[in-house]
Design brief:
The chain has about 550 residues and is mainly α. The chain contains 21 helices and no strands.
Amino acid sequence: MQNFQDIIFLLAVLISLSALLERIKVPQPILLVAAGLLIGFIPSLPDLGLDPQIIFLIFLPPLLYDAASQTSWHNFKADIRPISALAISLVFFTTVAVAVIAHYLVPDFTWPLAFLLGAIISPTDAVAASGIIKGLSLNRRIMTILEGESLVNDASALIAYRQALTAVLTGSFVFWDAGLQFITVAGGGILSGIIVGSVLVFIHKRINRNALVETGLSLLTPYIAYLAAERLHVSGILSVVTAGLIISWRGPEIFTYQTRMRTRIIWDTIIFLLNGFVFILIGLQLPGILKQVKHFTTTQLIGYGIVISVVTILVRILWVFAGAYATKMFHPKKTVEDDGLPAEPVSWKSVLIIAWTGTRGVLSLATALALPLTLYAGKPFPQRHLILFLAFVVIFVTLVVQGLTLPLLIRMLNLKPDSSESKEEKELELHIVNSTMHFIDTELPVRLDGDAKRQLKNKYNSRAEKLHNEIRIHKRNERKDVSVPVTVLTPLLNAEVEIGKFQRELLIKLHKEEAFSDTAIKKVERSMDINDLTLDQQLPKEIE
């Protein structure tokens, strides 16, 4: 009962702090880790240990699945080269670099322990990365590379972690066996995800417009993909990511609009709670870790943590720049865009953003906490508490230092907000509107008289004219330093907003007066909700 009360308390803290995010403009992961750190030092609060098995089974699958399902398969496939380089090569390079520094910096830190530490802190975190870069209007390609890297690198880091842990426990390491295991575990995880994703796509197609069942199945999907792969002793993480990408890719043809609306609301709520809760728990771990580290002074611990953190950050910066300009892996494969214009290569500024965004998170802490307490012979696991402390410091430094300075870095580099997605959205809408007008003229199976047909075409002509104007403004903003609003609040839109407010107030008044039944009130209210949702899509961002 006490643990349940503590969980409710932490959820209340999470919701309260999240309500302040819009005002204080601090990324959610940073604020919540700091809050957890402060809460952890409250004497009356019991030690809320973070069970790594809960992290691997309860938290990671839905968090990774949601991130994967919101990643474009086409963009992911187009940038598979830089994503693979960051998610595989950089993970192993970071593991080696950190191992070398840790071995020679920390007394009695053997090579197996050093490689174990390197494997623990080598992967960036999908959840932390998404929380940090969200709302920064980064280039779409940068977002794809960063999110793709953090989705895939967990698997390669876990394989390196298992090999290093085996070396500590047994005192031996076989390089060819590690390479074979990587191929088997990673390939098996991807294959498992393809099978699970394909089967679930087949099932969704057979569920006929049942939004409730489809939503429930979507909540089970990450756990099905993860557990199926783990039972086969392959990568559950890659299985979840692969299944998420497949279902996201096939989503437009298998989900109805009712399912998409219901599922998105439920998933947004669940991910918000899981994200926030796990970051608060990360902050809560430090007091318990400090109690266990007894053989080093505070100055030594801080010094070791800072050095390892700096090495982790610098290795990424050096490797990303060296890789970007040695192999041109960040340059597009195609030389022209879809509109026939030359493709613009990613600039050094964009490469710097990728190099600087290397936040660590829940996976690093979970793998550190998963270290056994004893060796096979019954002896205490060497330096376990120091590894936990160093992993926490790296997580905290990368979250706070890189997370807080990333917006500042973007401003210093004078990177303009990316409006290409909004422009592309308008161009897509215009294409659909023009095609619709052609359909009305030539293929519409419904017979309309002259006035009805003219009224219908006027509706789409008006929409096409509005989209033409907005696309022109987008193109003007791309050429000039000062941007103007793309969507403005026209008198008609302003009138619709005011009418909507009047209708809401009237409905509330009628509800209080009990003039109509609750059933009728709720049906009309739902209709108003749908109308408001449609209207919100047309409003300028500051009006929403």
